[in-house]
């Protein structure tokens, strides 16, 4: 019985050892399985992570692209808006400039304006408020018109227009005609207080304009006009005669006469002086006769004559038109001249 008990113990012991070995083996097998499972799980997780990362990158790229596109669109819109705003500002500034210019121009317009249209054989003109000082910013004009065929003598009896450099402030201009575009008389003074020389028109109109600034003023001017039978005339035909005013009496001071002679085309004109007595001056700068080709003083000069004694040599045009002008200054005077004109065959006329 005792031996049997020992065997039984040994058997049980062997059974326990065997079970322990089986458990250890099972544990080892289970550990290997867990390791395999963990490796599989780690690989799957890595794949998922890669996919997630790729998706995130794609999303980020898409977002960046969208943001860039939005920024470009916004920039373009901003550029358009800024351009529009700039254009609007330019238009507004230009409009403001035009408005300012109009305001300035309106402010620059004369505050005192007057226009006088005068007729008759004689009369008197004077500046505004004469003999008191004329106002600032004056713009006044006078147009004197007399009978056709007459000429006008304008003589000043008082003159006080404030002196300025080149008469850029207050100034009086007198023109030989009916508007400001006619030739301006040489008054010898346009501003200041020296008495201007008298003027004689070549036709039946004289135009005067007074302009003043906004500073100091003077007492202004007074002038008288009168008329006489005109000495300016146009001629046509093959022959004729011209002479100074009042010939054979003395011609007046400040006279100005113009004659235009027109003959048949293909002819030339010869002017012959039969009597000649004018004031002598250096360069004929005082009283003189000026002769030109054509119908005005713009034509080619043919002669400039003055003095007294022997009559000048005849003067011949190069065409069928001749312009003659006589002028005298405000000083001495003389008998004047008489001349005859005739035509002869020549170059083709104008």
Automatic annotation (TrEMBL):
Please tell me whether the keyword Cell wall biogenesis/degradation is annotated for this protein: no
Query: Entry's Gene3D superfamilies?
Result: Spermadhesin, CUB domain
Q: Does the keyword Transmembrane apply?
A: yes
User: Which keywords does UniProt give here?
Assistant: Disulfide bond, Membrane, Repeat, Transmembrane, Transmembrane helix
Which sequence ranges are marked TM in the entry? 46-74, 80-101
Domain CUB residue range list: 114-228, 231-344
Highest taxon in the source lineage? Eukaryota
**Per its record, how is this protein called by name?**
Tolloid-like protein 1
């Amino acid at each position: 019985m005792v031996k049997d008990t020992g065997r039984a113990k040994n058997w049980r012991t062997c059974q326990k050892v065997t079970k322990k070995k089986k458990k250890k083996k099972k544990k080892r097998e289970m550990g290997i399985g867990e390791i395999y499972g963990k490796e599989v799980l780690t690989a799957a997780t890595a794949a998922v992570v890669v996919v997630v990362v790729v998706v995130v990158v794609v999303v980020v790229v898409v977002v960046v692209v969208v943001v860039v596109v939005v920024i470009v669109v916004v920039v373009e819109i901003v550029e358009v808006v800024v351009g529009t705003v700039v254009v609007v500002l330019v238009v507004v500034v230009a409009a403001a400039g035009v408005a300012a210019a109009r305001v300035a121009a309106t402010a620059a317009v004369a505050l005192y304006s007057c226009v006088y249209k005068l007729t008759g054989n004689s009369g008197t003109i004077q500046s505004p408020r004469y003999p008191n000082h004329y106002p600032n910013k004056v713009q006044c004009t006078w147009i004197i018109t007399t009978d056709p065929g007459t000429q006008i003598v304008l003589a000043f009896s008082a003159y006080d227009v404030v002196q300025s450099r080149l008469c850029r402030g207050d100034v009086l201009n007198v023109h030989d005609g009916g508007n400001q575009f006619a030739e301006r008389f040489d008054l010898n003074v346009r501003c200041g207080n020296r008495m201007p020389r008298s003027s004689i028109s070549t036709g039946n109109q004289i135009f005067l304009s007074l302009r003043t600034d906004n500073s100091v003023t003077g007492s202004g001017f007074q002038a008288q006009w009168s008329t006489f039978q005109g000495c300016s005339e146009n001629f046509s035909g093959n022959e004729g005669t011209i002479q100074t005013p009042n010939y054979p009496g003395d011609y007046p001071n400040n006279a100005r006469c113009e004659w235009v002679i027109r003959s048949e085309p293909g002819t030339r004109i010869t002017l012959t002086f039969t009597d000649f007595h004018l004031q002598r001056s250096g360069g004929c700068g005082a009283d003189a006769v000026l002769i030109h080709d054509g119908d005005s003083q713009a034509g080619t000069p043919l002669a400039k004559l003055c003095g007294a004694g022997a009559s000048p040599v005849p003067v011949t045009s190069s065409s069928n038109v001749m312009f003659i002008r006589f002028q005298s200054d405000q000083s001495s005077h003389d008998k004047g001249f008489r001349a005859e004109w005739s035509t002869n065959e020549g170059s083709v006329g104008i």
